[in-house]
Structure formats: C-alpha cells, structure tokens
Amino acid sequence: MTSMTLALSDDLAQRLRPLESYLSTVLELSLVGFQTAAAATATEVIRFLSGDPAPKDILAYHASERAQERTRRLLALNQAGLLSEEEQRKLDELEKIEHIVRLLKARAAVALKDA
Which of 27, 40, 67, 86 has a Cα-to-Cα distance from 101 of 20 to 30 A? Predict the structure, then answer.
C-alpha cells in the first residue's frame, strides 16, 4: 500500500475528518465516474460512511431500494443479452461499488471479531 500526503484547505480537511477512516474508499468511489447512473449509489455509500458507522452498521448496510432496483434491471437485461454499451458501463460501475462495499463489510467483520 502506498501512502500519500495531500495539501488541503482547513475547511476541506474539517469536512473530510469524519470520513478519515474511509477516505481511500471515498476516493475510489469517486473514480467510478459521477456522470453515470452509478453516481447515486456511490453518493449513498459516501453519505453512509460520512456518518462514521460502527462495524455492525457496516455489516447491516444495504443500498436503497431504488439503487437495488436499478441493479436488478441491468442484471436482467444482461442475462437476456440486451444490454447496450452504455448500460454495460453502468453495470460495470455498480459492480465496482458492490465490490468496495463487500471489502468494507469484510473489514468490519474482522474488526468485530477482534473486538
């Protein structure tokens, strides 16, 4: 893992402080591409993490029904072989977000076990 040092304004540093333990995840989510439909799901995850959830809350976390419905729709289209290129990109982005959430849940499970 690589460490990085950033120069931030005091205001930005203050706003990021609640996300400190999840900052690498927030940065990774931001790289997903906020121009797509996956943006809403990424924003949900970031809002959730900004509340500094306890490990048990992370394990219980689920995306909103709306986000789950978007994913189910894309998966159904994919299974039927009817995805457009744009829809495939959206599905790929949602899968990246799901992978990140799974990693967070795995870390939370370890934290609970070690507690």
Answer: 86
